[in-house]
Design brief:
Layout lengths: L2 E7 L3 E3 L1 H4 L4 E3 L12 H10 L3 E8 L8 E4 L9 H17 L2 H9 L2 E8 L6 E8 L6 H18 L7
Parallel strand pairs: 2-7
Antiparallel strand pairs: 1-6, 2-3, 4-5, 4-7
């Protein structure tokens, strides 16, 4: 399998189709920057300011409406469960180790903060934030989601190089 190393900057994007029923993306810092003045953005911004919703980074196949999630890419201080943050850190370390040193330095100089090895068949991969309630209900479905996250973790990071 051939891999490309993709670098991502701090301008994480979020999926808007869950709220506005459309498949467009907008920068997390200002969801209305893409010319969208739908009233839902004001509500989402308020929920973010109150700390009730966060956007957890995920690697996606592309930014199209038909794209699927590759895996979560949690970033400390940005969002994600501890398992997702560990997976994001492992992906970043793998990207840095696999990249040519001068390319990694150039990416840092240009403001790219995170890396990930991606299959060459996914050249349009994107780092996109997915909205998640900060305080999730204690329900069977939430428990099932978290149990699935724990079960899938070994399969997700099995191919990532380990430190040392």
């Amino acid at each position: 399998m051939f891999l490309s190393i993709l670098a991502f900057s701090g301008g994480m994007r979020l999926r808007a189709d869950q709220w506005a029923r459309r498949n467009t993306l907008a920068p997390l810092e200002n969801p209305r920057a893409a010319g969208d003045d739908h009233p839902v953005w004001e509500n989402i911004e308020q929920l973010c300011r109150c700390g009730l919703i966060t956007f957890v980074p995920h690697l996606w196949e592309s930014d199209s409406g038909e794209a699927e999630v590759i895996h979560a890419y949690g970033i400390k201080g940005v969002g994600g469960e501890q398992i997702e943050i560990e997976l994001g850190e492992a992906a970043n370390q793998a990207g840095l180790r696999l990249a040519l040193e001068f390319k990694a330095q150039q990416a840092r100089i240009e403001g790219y903060c995170w890396t990930a090895p991606i299959k060459n068949t996914l050249p349009e991969a994107q780092l996109i934030g997915v909205g998640r309630l900060t305080y999730r209900p204690h329900t069977r479905r939430t428990s099932e989601w978290f149990a699935q996250l724990k079960r899938e973790r070994p399969a997700l990071d099995a191919g990532l190089p380990r430190n040392g």
